[in-house]
């Protein structure tokens, strides 16, 4: 096994946690805005489109929760291993955090596209 300093993992943990917090706030904002649109527009077409976005927000919130949970587990394992190995961790944990980071970047792209389509919806119905 190869070991490395926990500092790399800790920095990545912080960076990813900040991104996930941001997207949690972003989804909350988008959901609140959707509620406003639904209150103003009760027509079938508007509600149908609103339901589509609500479903997307639910899916992305679930993805966000899964990423957050995986990050917490990785952080916990990093802490445990660091305590056992004098501040060092197995490189496999760093590989895991890199995988989580890549998945967060994919999530960001999905949110970016969703937000772009959502803006078109908002322009149409506000």
Detailed description of the structure:
- Strands 1-2 form a two-stranded antiparallel sheet.
- It is rod-shaped.
- The chain has about 130 residues and is mainly alpha-helical.
- The protein has one domain (about 5-125).
- Helices cover about 90% and strands about 5% of the residues.
- Helix 1 packs parallel to helix 3 (about 90-125) and helix 2 runs antiparallel to helix 3.
- The mean pLDDT is about 95.
Report the count of strand segments: 2
Query: How much helical structure, as a percent, in the residues?
Result: over 70%
Q: How many domain units?
A: 1
Spell out the helices and strands N to C. Answer: EHHEH
Outline type: rod-shaped
- Kindly estimate the percentage of residues that lie in beta strands according to DSSP: under 5%
Structural class: mainly alpha
Low-confidence stretches are none
**DSSP helical segment count:** 3
Q: Rg, please?
A: 19 Å
Distance between the termini: 58 Å
Overall mean pLDDT: 96
Question: Spatial order of the strands in the main sheet?
Answer: 1-2
Key traits:
126 residues; mainly alpha; two-stranded antiparallel sheet; 3 helices
What's this, in brief?
The protein is mainly alpha-helical and 126 residues long. The chain contains three helices and two strands; from the N terminus they run E-H-H-E-H.
């Amino acid at each position: 096994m190869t070991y490395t300093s926990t500092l790399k993992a800790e920095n990545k943990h912080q960076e990813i946690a900040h991104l996930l917090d941001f997207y949690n706030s972003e989804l909350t904002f988008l959901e609140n805005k959707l509620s406003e649109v639904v209150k103003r527009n009760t027509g079938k077409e508007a509600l149908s489109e609103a339901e589509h976005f609500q479903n997307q927000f639910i899916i992305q919130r679930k993805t966000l929760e899964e990423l957050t949970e995986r990050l917490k587990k990785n952080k916990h394992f990093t802490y445990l291993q660091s305590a056992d190995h004098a501040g060092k961790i197995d490189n496999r944990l760093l590989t895991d955090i890199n995988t989580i980071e890549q998945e967060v970047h994919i999530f960001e792209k999905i949110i970016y596209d969703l937000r772009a389509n959502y803006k078109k919806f908002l322009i149409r119905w506000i």
